[in-house]
């Protein structure tokens, strides 16, 4: 957008030259860090109730280190390979890999790196529901440590909520969205094939198996699968709630349990998440919660967990924090601050009655996510398991909020 200054004298109007897009390089981020130092401190100190202080040397050092962590995450966001020497577990290989990077070894000695990996949430274990075994979740090393520094601990949380950091996260997400929408054939095909090899993507499931037909990386990332690739369990039983996505699933019988054991954001409430007082009231005081977290390697379309009618979709603009547990488990309002879309489904849970019960289905965007898309329109009928929507590149999450009156009973191995 261009602004014209008012003038007392008539002037000849000319079309301004387009301003070239500023690349969000590490140096660009350094410039933003430097130019915002004084402005941010002044803003912080002028707010009522904020303790006025001067920034000490230790805080300056911490701030610069965190800024450098952000630079590493952004500048290496396209790196998809977790360096895994043969014979090493993901956790062990990540530690060995971390020690070999000069940026990391500059800030952390070997003992501290080991402590970070062993005790300080530097990564995630997940349970493979099919095998019952615990697995270390793969993630590129720069992203793993950069996100830990940015989102783990009170100092990092205070830092990442400053306005100029939020602007960088927004610009980074939008920039990556443009990169993944690039139509440069050589780059797109190289990126797709690298992604398939890195994450062992099963291409036999693809609806479009000819990789050259994907014009952009995002078109592959939000790929469709052949019909029946994700069949719903017990399709004839409307009382069943199905899985919404290939994901890391966490469920809670009540919303208060979710807040106590998992989501630590201080403003994480049903009302703040949905921003719809009528819908919030209809869900009751203790609705059940399912959180499906999609990692970048996952099939990035989500499906309806219930049957019914799509009543409404509301988009809520917001921030671009990561939805990784490293952030969700901290006092950062990830789900209630992030960009998200809220769908209301008037669900049918019985064949014997036409009664509908509203549920909330929330698609949450995240760091390096370009967009949230929907396959269904308001007023359309939905069957459990139907394709419902998709995310562009990045980690992302969908959340189901089910009314207290349903008294949802989750499978034992989940709860």
Key features?
single chain; 415 residues; alpha+beta; seven-stranded antiparallel beta sheet; three-stranded antiparallel beta sheet; 36% helix; disordered N terminus
Report on the structure:
InterPro entries: PS_Dcarbxylase. Residues 1-24 are annotated as: Disordered. By secondary structure, this protein is α+β, with helices and mostly antiparallel strands. Among the domains are: 26-43 and 55-80 and 88-171, no CATH class; 248-406, no CATH class. Helix content is 36%, strand content 15%. The chain is built from 15 helices and twelve strands. The protein has a seven-stranded antiparallel beta sheet. The chain has a three-stranded antiparallel beta sheet with strand order 5-11-9, with no helix packed on it. The radius of gyration is 23 Å and the shape is globular. It starts with 25 loop residues before the first helix and ends in a 13-residue tail after the last strand. 37% of the residues are buried.
Summary?
This is Unplaced genomic scaffold SPHSTscaffold_58, whole genome shotgun sequence. Residues 1-24 are annotated as: Disordered. The protein has 415 residues and is an alpha+beta fold.
Gap between N and C termini: 50 Å
Mean pLDDT level: 70
Point out poorly predicted stretches. Answer: 1-30, 35-55, 77-103, 322-333
SSE pattern, N- to C-terminal: HHHHHEEHHHHHEHHHEEEHHEEEEEE
> From the helix content, strand content and strand pairing, which structural class follows?
alpha+beta
- The total of beta strands comes to 12
Helix content: 25-40%
- Major sheet size, sense and barrel closure: 7 strands, antiparallel
Q: Strand fraction band?
A: 15-25%
Radius of gyration: 23 Å
Shape: globular
Strand order of the largest sheet: 3-4-12-8-7-6-10
Count of DSSP-assigned helices = 15
